[in-house]
Design brief:
Length: 155
């Protein structure tokens, strides 16, 4: 994990620099800088809008007495999207903008729930939440105590 982070902090800036230089060669320095500034301005507006939306949804979910797990994951995506937008470069701007778009966040949330569910050993229902109940090993057989009074164990 540490090696992956170190590689990420080396590879991403080098890729950004390479891409900025290539775009600069293709369209010129001033238009390239203009694109970088424009993407930051558009990203800032989207960050403000999506941040407010996620915060409002978070508060509504809490007020209704439900656990705001979707809103928390959306909030994390919006925070990371904002961090990517602050970082200058085309790759990070595209990544940041994708994290601010609700359909992309929905797909990311679905992936994260499935991935975390597998890591934590949770089953995930179609609605996206964990399935209640005690997990058993495959070899573990139910006992009479685990069954309702009107059911029996067939052997």
């Amino acid at each position: 994990m540490l090696l992956a982070l170190i590689a990420l902090f080396i590879v991403v800036p080098l890729a950004e620099l390479y891409l900025i230089l290539k775009v600069g060669d293709l369209i010129g320095v001033v238009p390239t800088l203009g694109l970088l500034v424009l993407s930051s301005v558009i990203g800032s507006a989207m960050l403000r809008s999506q941040g407010r939306t996620v915060w409002r949804q978070f508060n509504q979910t809490l007020a209704s007495g439900r656990m705001p797990h979707r809103e928390l994951l959306d909030g994390v995506a919006v925070i990371f999207g904002g961090a990517f937008l602050i970082t200058p470069g085309f790759l990070t701007d595209i990544t940041g903008l994708l994290l601010l778009i609700p359909p992309t966040r929905r797909a990311l949330r679905h992936f994260a729930v499935r991935r975390l569910g597998k890591r934590l050993g949770l089953a995930v229902a179609a609605a996206g939440g964990p399935v209640e109940g005690r997990a058993r090993a495959r070899s573990e057989q139910p006992t009479r105590r685990d069954l309702p009074p009107d059911e029996t164990i067939d052997r």
